[in-house]
Amino acid sequence: MKWLPRTLFGQIVLALLVGIVAAQVAGAWLMLDERTRLAQRLLGTHAAQRIAGIIDALDAADDAERARLIRALNLPPTRIRFDEPWHPQSAETAAEVAAFAAEVRYALTRKVEIQVLSLRGEAFHAPNVPLAGGEAMPENGAFAPPRPKRMLLRADLQARLADGTIVTFHHTLPGTLPEDPLRILGWIGVVLAIVTALALWIVRRLTRPLSVLAAAAAGLPSNLDQPPLPESGPSEIASAARAFNRMQRDLKRMIETRTVALAAVSHDLRLPLTRLRLRIEALRDERLRRAIEGDVADMERMIDNTLQFLRAGGSSEKPVLLDVNALLERIAEDVEVLGAEVGLQGGAQPLLARPMALERCLTNLIDNARRYGGPRVDVVVRDSPQALEIRVEDRGPGIAESERERVFEPYVRLESSRARETGGTGLGLAIARAVARLHGGDVRLEPRPGGGLSAVLTLARGPVAV
Asked: Which domains are delineated in the chain?
């Protein structure tokens, strides 16, 4: 999915946030719903008990006492009337209606016939509370001036007293919680923010070693001497760091062993080649002598190129602040001696690089362009704060797209012969790429507009492995 974060840190944080928010929302909804139900049930039970007590008191009183009781008890939220007839009860009774009637009947101490007419939410004028001074309400039960309309739950109930008197109750239940739900939601938001911040800190602490490990792995090909990773943190991270440090030591030891072996082989091969050169001087056949000298020169060149390739990815040369413009001018002069025409365009700020390795890389690229792309070679330099780009362009036949990566493999030559006229051992581009990657860059081949080939060398700016 495109909207998912690509980093491990982002995905863990997203999963935690989704889970926390879902849990908090579900918990808040359940709590508020349960509070609403509990409040309505408690208030409904209290109302049923109060109405049952009024019915018992009215049933036991005479007419004069009933009038006094009505004046005293006809207060919000209960309205009591004697002037309504006995209404026929509906055949269908809702569950809430039946429950409320059961509560009233259960609270009665006298045997009185009652019926609940309705239990419904209506928008009507809620009555005012009596004045603080205890001012009595009118004897006819009329209410004081109404307040604004709001949704309230009203229960209408009738009771038939022992003497046949019909008493009608209009009771209003509160329709809102006694406590503002926004206050609860606000505290839930505070808790959510605290838990989120704590989760972010924990996740970042756990994933930071993975970022360090990834950076170390990316820098390993260009710098085997980088400091080892700290073997601390969670057991899995510490184990991965130990394995990485062990791998780094093994690679360094293997390369050192290979370098020593290559130096020995180079020395052992050069000695018999030198003796062979001395012995062919005694040959009288000039043609045969020149052929053998050419073979010996080819062998020495192959040895040199092979050693250069094997050393290119792990040079012990120290980086220095290098004048790339001066280096390109010097290489161009050397190539022009061989009959090429080199055009330099653009310029670059000094670059932290290994001079001999970078010179070998650029020389190989420019010499390849001279050999296979004609006498004209253009070198275009484009500099930026992030990277330095050097394009070596020729006007030759180019290389098919399917072959542009294969030519970077060691000993691969698209020109199948090993003739001295074309030269090379198939290691020039491989050496150039190894040096570029040693500097945090790369080499790629692109078609040149108008025909020919462009070898694009990119070199990263910034710290270089030492």
From this structure: 1-124+149-219 (no CATH), 220-312 (1.10.287), 315-460 (3.30.565.10)
